[in-house]
Specification:
Helix content: over 70%
Largest sheet: none
Number of domains: 1
Order of helices and strands: HHHHHHHHHHHHH
Number of strands: 0
Structural class: mainly alpha
Strand content: under 5%
CATH architecture: Alpha/alpha barrel
CATH topology: Mitochondrial carrier fold
Amino acid sequence: MLSSDYFQVQKNGISPFQTMLAYLGGSAFQTVVDNPITAYRQLVQQYAKDVNGKALSPKQARLEANAVFRHHPFSASLSGLGPRLVGVGFKRVPKFGFFLGISYFMDEGETPGLVAATGASIFSAFFINPVRMIEKQQRAYFRQKGHQKTVFSILKESKQDWFRPLFRGTTPLMGHSLASATTGLVGQPQLQKYIQTELGSKTKLGQVTSGLIASATVTPIYVMLTNPLSRLEVIMQTSSINKKSITLSEALKEVAKDSKKFGLRGLFRGQGIGMAKAIVSLTMFHEGRIWCTNAFKAHNKNYGYQPAS
């Protein structure tokens, strides 16, 4: 990655290093825009139980989440944003690094494929999970305390157990990350390209509109795959750090119990919100990425940087 070729402008008018920066720029833009939806979705999924451990219906959970946002709209909307923005580096550099690195070695150009997505999902999970754990812990106690938990206190509690709590939920994260990479990083750009090619020549369909259509098409598949995995993450990562961790099998039993009592609504808590989030997230990420990519290409052209022959 640190070889001279990594910083050399390629035939497509941009260097691999600039491509990585474009992905990070798109990710930062997406993170800021979708954070309120992300926070709301976590609370809807987390409030499957009340403070006494009694199971709540999806409707009741949604009302609980609404109450939190009604009483603390600003802090709830921004909760977890700090770790998520820091995570653009800690989470995205490994993920995009593996993703683009594997793609580069396979000579896939600007359209990375399934192998790159799979490798990135597996190898980056251990870098990503601690940030997701801190993010979820920050907003886990809004209902009881009315404010988010500080990053310092989370790290201090984790330190007592050699920071092992920060890796709770890594296994479902791998599956979540794989579904996200294959549908979001691989599927959406290819579908957007197809839509622009097929419909753009016949209509005045612009880049943003085609991106929204592509994201809306990919989103149901993505959310169907990731929503149950997201539930498992929330269950495993929002329990008290000072208490015994919830294992994957225990989390699966809790979801199964929820499904038995409330049917598919119990299994797919937050599904509708997840679809709205995914459409916004995917579109904002790729629009930010494309804007940065085009800016780098224009910069390289203006300054006469020659692509590698």
